């Protein structure tokens, strides 16, 4: 499962929250078309810098479900899977913080998945000293990131990451 999130800020331990989750299923190195996507009400405003990144306003998110309401469906979707994320520590910290707020807490993300694969670390190992951002990897592997505008969305980023991951881990002939 390729996963991405958008958040209200950069620090899950200081109360920043997830506002969007997107997951894309890969089976046998093929994108299946199965996805999980939702916007979430974070019950707080986004930091101005985060808002510049994702553009998801407090007003837009106000009528969206709380994380605790979608947590069972999310966990069902990722259960037993290898989860692939770019800078996975960031997404996992936020998901673990959200799971901890659920009553009762279902535990940590790693309690529900087979593995967590970090494409940022793969890129740093394969291309030492090179930029390892998702944008840089899209350029390196000729993944078309047009239509990106200036804003990031979790589903668009997850789609790009799925293509980058497949290209980056392709076996040489």
Folded structure, characterized:
- With 173 residues, the protein is α+β, with helices and mostly antiparallel strands.
- The chain contains seven helices and five strands.
- The strands form two sheets. A three-stranded antiparallel sheet has the order 1-2-3, with helices on both faces. Strands 4-5 form a two-stranded parallel ribbon.
- The longest helix is centred in the last third of the chain and has 15 residues, at 154-168.
- The radius of gyration is 16 Å and the shape is globular.
- The mean pLDDT is 93.
Broad structural category: alpha+beta
Helix/strand order: EEEHHHEHEHHH
Chain-averaged pLDDT: 93
| Secondary structure: helix percent | 25-40%
Q: State the shape.
A: globular
Strand order of the biggest β-sheet: 1-2-3
Number-wise, the strands total: 5
Discrete helix count: 7
Distance between the termini: 25 Å
Strand content: 15-25%
Summarize, please.
Helices cover 39% and strands 20% of the residues. It has helices at residues 48-54, 58-61, 67-78, 88-101, 119-126, 134-140, 154-168; strands at 2-7, 18-27, 30-39, 82-85, 115-118.
Features:
single chain; alpha+beta; 3-stranded antiparallel beta sheet; 5 strands; 20% strand
SSE layout and pairing:
Blueprint: E1 2-7, E2 18-27, E3 30-39, H1 48-54, H2 58-61, H3 67-78, E4 82-85, H4 88-101, E5 115-118, H5 119-126, H6 134-140, H7 154-168
Parallel strand pairs: 4-5
Antiparallel strand pairs: 1-2, 2-3
């Amino acid at each position: 499962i390729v996963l991405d999130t958008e958040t209200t800020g950069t620090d899950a331990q200081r109360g920043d929250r997830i506002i969007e989750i997107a997951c894309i299923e890969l089976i046998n190195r093929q994108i299946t078309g199965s996805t999980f996507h939702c916007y979430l009400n974070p019950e707080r405003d986004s930091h101005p810098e985060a808002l510049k990144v994702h553009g998801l306003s407090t007003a837009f998110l106000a009528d969206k479900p709380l994380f605790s309401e979608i947590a069972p469906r999310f966990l069902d979707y990722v259960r037993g899977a290898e989860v692939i994320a770019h800078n996975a520590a960031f997404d996992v910290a936020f998901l673990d913080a959200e799971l901890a707020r659920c009553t009762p807490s279902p535990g940590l993300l790693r309690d529900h998945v087979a593995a967590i694969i970090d494409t940022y670390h793969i890129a740093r190992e394969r291309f030492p000293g090179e930029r390892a951002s998702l944008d840089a990897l899209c350029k390196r592997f000729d993944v078309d990131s047009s239509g990106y505008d200036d804003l990031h969305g979790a589903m668009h980023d997850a789609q790009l990451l799925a293509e980058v991951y497949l290209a980056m881990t392709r076996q040489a002939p």
